Structures are given as C-alpha cells and as structure tokens.
Amino acid sequence: MLDQIKGLHHVTSMAANARDNNAFFTETLGLRRVKKTVNFDAPDVYHLYYGDEVGTPGSVMTYFPFPHIVKGRPGAGEVGATAFSVPKGSLGRWETRLGDAGVSGLSRDAAFGAERLHFDGPDGDGFALIETEDDTRTPFLGAGVDADAAIRGFHSVQLRLRDGGATTELLTFMGYETVERAGAVTRMRVKGGGIADIIDIETLPSAPAARQGAGSVHHVAFAVENRETQLAVRQALLDTGHQVTPVIDRDYFWAIYFRTPGGVLFEIATNEPGFERDEDRSSLGQGLMLPTRYEPSRAAIAAHLPPL
C-alpha cells in the first residue's frame, strides 16, 4: 500500500465559454485566478486555474474552455460532483449569494453528518459546498466574500460508477481507507492527508455511461510532495498492472496519468514547484503565461484567445 499520496491536488474540467467560466469562479465563488495559461496539447485553448491566494494543492479547480465543445452527458464512469469546504454556519449566506447570481440547481441536504449546498456550474457542472468545522486553511477573500464564509479549498470529489469494487481496491492501494457508508455512497479518506482527503464513491449499477463535454471533469489529480515520491508511486502502479504515462512537465507541477477501472482518469501531481515559479504572488493569474515551446507563437496565440 502506498503512503506518499496526501489527498487531492487539483480537479480539471471542461467548459464552453472562457469568460463565463472565469466570471463564475472569480466573481460568484470568490476564488483567485492563480494562472492564465494554455492547454499544453491545444495552445489555442486556455488552461485557467482558480484557488486560494497561491494555488495551494488541494484548493485548485482548473478548466479547459473549448469554444465549440458539446455539452457533457452525466452518467457512470466520471466525477459526479466536486465539493468545496466552507465554515460551519455559512451555507445560508451562500444560498442567498448563489441565488442572487442566478446559479441553478440549488438544493440543501446533509450527508455524513455535514450540511451541504448543491449547485450547478455554468455548464451544468456538479458542485457542492460542505460545512466543515476544523478546516484551518486560509481562504482567498475575493469578490466580497467574508472570511467566515469563504471557500477553504476542496472537501472531496464524488465518483459515479456502475461498480465501485475495483476502484475501491485501487484507492485502498493508494492509501485510502473506507470510513463510512450511506446508501449507495462509500466514503474513503486517505491516511495522514489532513485536508482535501476524501473520495466518495457512488455506485449506480444501471446508470448510463457518461459522455464527456462541457461541464465534465476531465481528471482528478492527487498530491505527492516531490518528484522522488512521484516516481515511487509510478513504479508501484506499474508493478500492479496499471498503464501509467511517463512523467510530464506541466510547468507548475510534474504529472503522471492513468485510467482507473471505473473509467475516471487519475493524475498524480507534485506539490513542487508551484504557481509562483513565473509570476510574483501579487500578480498571479494576470499575465498570459506560455510553455517555453509556445513563446515564439505568443502573438498569434494571444490574438486567438478571447478576452476574459
């Protein structure tokens, strides 16, 4: 069993409109845009990162906004919902704020002893805010969100699968343990994770297969401290029969990817070097930052990308 994984690093999804996406996360949710760059494989498309002040692992939601992408179809084999942690007693204010902003899909419930507020993203993305008492992370205070309500970072992601058995075994190998069950949902928490350390597996045997598109999660990334531990995790995954990519330099972290038995794409990302490697903290997310190989085409890329 692995002991190097420390919880969630980031979650990456797809969107249809870059400006709407940027406005939703920075103005409605009050997160900071910590990086404005491009898709490494499609430089005519943004890669936008939102999180706390410095993009701490466990706080960062990222997006590829493809202008002509079809809408995703919810189903099995995907991340059904991404949940953020907020202080206890703040959901009433969030419900009012999101309602005033015209956000759809608002509903309240409770699960595993915590109050939740469900809502949709601009492309029908599934989100929730979950009240948490012991989250001491420092929030970014943007768009008028008070410190006693602001998002602290990720709480969890919920995988929607037809059969959760093989994925549960994989997560157990990755250092997670089953801590509770409620109906069709199994909650797993990584040992020693501390924050952003929960994965919920919802088993829906008769659900149709998901189709990726706008509003779909592309992949879920798990955090390791550095490249040395990442290489150890990669070798362990290879030794157990998983098809894992070589290590890929993503400028702000190093990444490896593999497909889970349930169909969800997992990434293992390093906490180093972080988002301050090419911008000062005060100006994070302001400039268009390009991978080195695209710098000769900066003028053409910048002219093609829509203003935010």
Automatic annotation (TrEMBL):
Domain VOC: 7-132, 153-271
Species for this entry: Aureimonas glaciei
GO MF annotation: an example: dioxygenase activity
Protein's name according to its UniProt entry: Dioxygenase
Presence of keyword NAD: no
Gene3D superfamilies: 2,3-Dihydroxybiphenyl 1,2-Dioxygenase, domain 1
Pfam families: Glyoxalase
Assigned keywords, A-Z: Dioxygenase, Oxidoreductase
